[in-house]
Amino acid sequence: MTLNWLVTGAGGMLAQDVLARLADAGIPAVAATRAELDVTDPESVRSAFAAHRPAVVVNCAAWTAVDDAESREDEALRINGDGARHLAEACAAEGAVLLQVSTDYVFAGDAEKPYAEDAPTGPRSAYGRTKLVGEQAVLTALPSRGYVVRTAWLYGAGGGNFVRTMIKLESVKDTLDVVDDQRGQPTWTADLADRLVRLGRGALAGTAPAGVYHGTSSGETTWFGFTRAIFEQLGTDPERVRPTTSEAFVRPAPRPAYSVLGHDRWAAAGIEPIRDWRAALTEAFPALVEAERG
After folding, report:
1. Of residues 115, 127, 147, 155, which has the active-site annotation?
2. Number of folded domains in the chain?
3. Is 127 known to be catalytic?
4. What is the 3-state secondary structure (H, E, C) of the chain?
5. What would the pLDDT profile of 137-177 be if each residue is shown by its tens digit?
6. Residue numbers of the domain that contains 50
7. Is 245 within a domain?
């Protein structure tokens, strides 16, 4: 019997890498864009499940406009909260596994050591609140088949992101001021996609316990340190990047000062955590430059 995987939000940066990883592994997958599966519509979800009978669902559909969510929280909640719940309920009815991609924004961002998977949540933004609602819906509806994978600082060749923006700005700016008081873990979407696929396979095999995992790179840096590493990859002078504070870039949604996540839970699934962010950036960089500069 063929076990189909269903990937929602298939047009997005992460979903593209998930689908590529599934193809590499020879796993049949259905790529569902929003036009084909609207997670906010229960009937659309039911129809997709009836048509494809997925064994594993990877939910990459999300409202990711962090600042816009501050004034449009109800809209963000329909996607990040209700959408996750609709998928979880469908998975519960069909006996399917759900991999729910979540975020570091569910935490307050004021810790001094990496957040463990079971650390208390405390989102300070509308985006974080809506994603936490989605997490809770999945874990409640699917206590034995629901997987929440929190990630942060994502970049990849398949969409707009911080790395591609810095590649663009390097060619037009003499210097760049970048915040040095927010710490996190730059994470390549290809690395996260690999862990999502391995986790889903482990779920089907019964070797990966359900619950919360942290899908970010090892190591940590600031946006300033990250940008200097990008300039080094470009072969240009990293001294052109200058440190500044968050006060210089006030945004509608508060940014976590500390978004470093711990990775202890992967051991329970027999899967190693994602590698150091620097090694990933080096491998990813040629495709990022090609995507940005053509």
Report:
1. 127
2. 1
3. yes
4. CCCCEEEECCCCHHHHHHHHHHHHCCCCEEEECCCCCCCCCHHHHHHHHHHHCCCEEEECCCCCCHHHHCCCHHHHHHHHHHHHHHHHHHHHHHCCEEEEEEEHHHCCCCCCCCECCCCCCCCCCHHHHHHHHHHHHHHHHCCCCEEEEEECCEECCCCCCHHHHHHHHHCCCCCEEEECCCEECCEEHHHHHHHHHHHHHHHHHCCCCCEEEECCCECCEEHHHHHHHHHHHHCCCHHHEEEECHHHCCCCCCCCCECCECCHHHHHHCCCCCCEHHHHHHHHHHHHHHHHHC
5. 999 999 999 999 999 999 999 999 999 999 999 999 999 99
6. 5-160+185-219+258-275
7. no
